[in-house]
Amino acid sequence: MIGLPRRLFLLLSLGLLATVFPGLAKGLEWQEGVGHRLARLTLPEHGRVGFTQLPNIAHGFQFTNQVSKVALAKRSNLTNGSGVALGDVNGDGLCDIYFCRLEGGNELYLNRGGWRFEVAPNANGAAFAGRRTRGAAFADVNGDGSLDLLLTTFRKGTLCLLNDGKGQFTDVTAKAGLESRTSGTTLALGDVDHDGDLDLYVANFGELLLLRDGGSFAVRQVGGKSMVTGQHAKRLKIINGRLIEFGETDAFYLNDGQGVFQRVPWGTDRFVRADGQPLTEPLDFGLCVQMRDINGDGHVDIYVCNDFQTPDRFWLNDGAGRFREIGPEAVRSVAYASMGADFTDIDRDGQTDFFVVEMLSRDVSTRLTKDSPNNPLPPVPGGLATRLQVARNTLFWNRGDGTFAEVGRYAGVEATDWSWQPVFLDVDLDGYDDLLVTNGHLHDVNDRDSQARYAHIPKAKREQVGLQMFPPNTTANVAYRNLGNFRFAETSQAWGFNSPQMSHGIATGDLDNDGDLDLVINCLNQPPLIYRNNTIAPRVAVQLRGLPPNTHGIGARVSVVVDKIRQTQEIVAGGRYLSGDQPLRMFAMGTGLMRRSIEVAWPSGRRSFISNPQANHIYEIAEPSGEPPEPRLAKRKQEPFFEDASRLLNHTHTENEYDDTALQPLLLRRLDRSGPGVAWLDFDHDGDEDLLLGAAAGSAVVVYKNLGDGRFGVVSSAAGLKMPGDVVSASGWVDGSGRRTWLAAVTNYESPRSQARLRTFKKSGGLAIGGQSLDGIMPGPIAVADVDADGDLDVFIGGRAVSGHYPQASVSMFLRNTTRSLEPADGTLSQVLGLVNGAVFSDLDGDGFPELIVATEWGPVRVFKNQQGTFSEVTEPLGLGGLTGLWQGVATGDFDGDGRTDIVATNWGLNSSLRPNVINPPRLYYNFTESSLPTSLVLAAWDERLKQYLPSRDLSTLFRGYPGLRGLFQSHREYAGAGVLKLMDHHPSPARSVTAAVLQSMVFLNRSEGFEPKPLPPEAQLSPAFGVSVGDLDGDGVDDLFLAQNFAAFPTDADRLDAGRGLWLRGIGKANFTPVKGDEAGLAIHGDQRACALADYDADGRLDLVVTQSGGRTRLFRNNKAKPGLRVRLVGGKLNPDAIGSAARLHFGQAQDATTGPWREWQMGSGYGAQDGLIKVLAMPQPPDTIEVRWPNGKTTRTSLPAGLTGITITPDGKILEQKSR
Length: 1222
Fold this sequence. Notes:
Blueprint: H1 6-13, H2 17-20, E1 30-33, E2 36-40, E3 51-53, H3 69-74, E4 84-87, E5 96-99, E6 107-111, E7 117-119, E8 133-139, E9 148-153, E10 158-163, E11 169-171, E12 184-190, E13 199-204, H4 210-214, E14 218-222, E15 225-229, E16 236-239, E17 242-245, E18 248-249, E19 251-255, E20 261-263, E21 271-272, E22 283-284, E23 286-292, E24 301-306, E25 313-317, E26 323-325, E27 333-335, E28 341-344, E29 353-356, H5 364-367, E30 388-390, E31 394-398, E32 404-406, H6 408-411, E33 419-425, E34 434-439, H7 448-455, H8 459-465, E35 478-482, E36 488-490, E37 503-509, E38 518-523, E39 529-533, E40 539-545, E41 557-562, E42 565-570, E43 573-574, E44 584-588, E45 596-601, E46 607-611, E47 617-622, E48 642-644, E49 678-681, E50 690-693, E51 702-706, E52 712-714, E53 727-734, E54 740-746, E55 756-764, E56 766-774, E57 779-785, E58 794-799, E59 813-817, E60 822-825, E61 835-842, E62 851-859, E63 861-867, E64 870-873, E65 885-886, E66 890-893, E67 902-905, E68 923-927, E69 936-943, E70 948-951, H9 955-958, H10 972-976, ...
């Protein structure tokens, strides 16, 4: 067990590999290059994208991983199968296959070329009959250049076998320091401390599932408390009166460079929690582990997939082999029963993304028959300090700043059935890695009907039959094509990857030396699956020869650049579920004349580069010798646009304890978490924008006076500021004396026996508080405008859900200004308009009278035409009627620069359990009764297999709203096939339904014939969005958008839609937007954002931002980097002093070269219960010549602008009342 001699070390570095390892040349004609060698690959003339399953016996395979019923009855964990390892064990240049077996000896198949394999006698010393072998991986652990073998077993720990260089193995487990009695699963190797050798992490699971198989333990009463005693007591805990089972502690070993390992104890500073505290022996159900550089800092990180309630472990390496668990803000959710993981750069943005599989069924009907029999810990409600476990696959998009967004449902891969291992592989060689998943389980322990039968048989018989009462979970393997836009399309059948065999461990390798990766899968009680890759597109294969002792370059990152696409993959050892790949990677090369290169970033810090590599060749690249280069200096981070100035407010919104699901048990989400609203308004007429922040019931509204020097002071008058209900929206207004006044809608949703109120806050010495009752409405957003051109400001208040009767909406209310008071007015706007979440007045047709636009839930974005103060709905004629959605916020702007006012509306997004479908959209059925009984709900999803709508909730849950269903179905399977319409027959009230055909947040472009919908970029669809603000945040002359995102207030806290952090979408012209990364924007808000509003609070000509959070800290961001714009204040009449309803734009240049900026409207109330500041900032990408203003009375003025202006105040006759210059 000694390393390579110095002379051989030098030969390797010079690329004389054919001389040193002559066997590698077999079947390939190698050519020497500088630091590498290459060989032409032989490809067939004809092929297709996908795989061919090869007949086993014809190619020499006679292996089956067989397990007896007797063994399965004693150890149900045996159903988790075994793995497979691929690699060239005898140095002949051909990839060999090693299969693990649970009963009998393991088998090694030597590759003889031409798809002929020969079983090695006694697996060349690696048979280990009787050891119940589970996982395997090849790796050179002692640095002699040969692939050694590591195995995991039941109760025999991890085995180490050294390779003599000719493919013969010797068991050195004791000498290697690996003897133990653990029951491991997957193992992975990597150089965690940069000492050149491969360290080892072993995921352990436990020999038995104690509560299912019957371990040695007892529950006793000691001192009045229940305690667990016995041999397995360590793995059982009583939590909240329930007996909870845990797994077995994982093992981490450091390699001394000679293949001798030293186990690192837990409880030291080697592994610490996110808070820096050492982690003491985690008793996890470890199934899979990968070691690789996940965050791109050059150090080997560790990700462990843990089953059941034991959470996944994501360890970041500090560079010295010490690990800190990633914090909950960086990864917000993980899979509950994690099985396996794989990593790649899915969207080719240079960052490593990853995917973790679970066991959620693909079709709706099957999900209704499943339930985990284990006992997950109750979820911890909300909060940024918690990480949620979710019962589905999880796909993590790397934002590049140390945080990850979970986007599995957006990508369409959240459900792949009972899955074991995902594999990212560019099957079609288009430059984007596709996805393969192995599936199946011998017994479907999640089958509800079988669980019921199992629970009713005597315990003695249960121990006899074990899992035999449960049916097989025969689900086919699945393949997805990467569409290149972070979406995947299923291609299982087309690619020939849809076998229904019980598939566990999978490994990739080039079995025929054609440069693409073939597949081998170890199946339970069935022959293995051997797949030949049939793709013939141009490719390049890369394998490495590293300096000893890391002779295969484990941990090196290989990048192949083709034109503008950079494909990066890491060479890893082990890490597949129970399995390990051949250390070779394949890359697409494309066709035509393009720039191409191969780059290798070695773990040592050395680098290799090959310019213009040849397609259809394999390159073997040698690690350069000599001292590693000095680490590259990290690029200095640019200052972000926004600075977090939340300390200036020091405000946190606190939710009360009310829970509306107690009143309406089948609510889809908690509607009592809709606020708070926010509004900017110069309420004291001193020229600075002040701020009002809404509150939850029982808490106080906070008013901040702008001190004019970048600071705020709280206006204290707390006695009247505590609210009887949630302040869900806020807006400005002007009373009959001409005083600017804040309006706040105080809902009675939590106390329906009381009346809602419209509270007013105005300057009167201190702060005068007033208001009026709102009869018959449960209010939502406020919008204010002079709708009838009489010079004063009228008010619209949208109606939201009636308590206990969602999705029934209350009436909306229009309040006409009599100059003395706001009086309810009859008419179109004072009816039920749907569940109104957002509202704004805007002049869409340029006639001087503002239309009303409302965003409704389970309805469309509705538009009401203003005909001189009288409103009529024009939603259908404008082409918006069929676009029903879960619309939330709404705002307006000219996004395509055509001079017309467009609309932007926020929606639920594409990263939830809801699936958009124009033909069969998500449908909410409800049974409303005119009584105190709550409205019963069934959210239905279309099942393509059964061609009908099915309920999305299980039968026992529906009993709470549909007691008539009790006793109706004899099984869960019968219920799953019944369909929603049959369920509706068993409710005394008739069924109604609403739909959401569109879930994307989008803009609606104002065309002469109506509105053209255009979805916002994918990043805007990754979470629900609520508030939306329009403004030029960078001062480039094109309007941008900001979206307030996320929703986590679900009834059981069992889900989170929080892949957003607040999104700045930079306008790039013609209604196109591009997301601004968080580190450039300086915006990172992880909680449940609601309202947002823009204002230049510090008068520097840049738009600042405030964002409220439900149950979280209010965030204020100061804009430090935008190109300063022109601050514009308009002067109106006494009762409309800010000329609400006006619009202005700047003109640049003269005559034919003249350009204009976008129109900016003066509005009160917009977005989602919010109001922007009324001193507008108009961008000046170049010096402006003129400002054009459309006034509320229809008059248009043009005013010439002196050079060097920073701020102006304009009167209705177009004169400059005040001006400020640099």
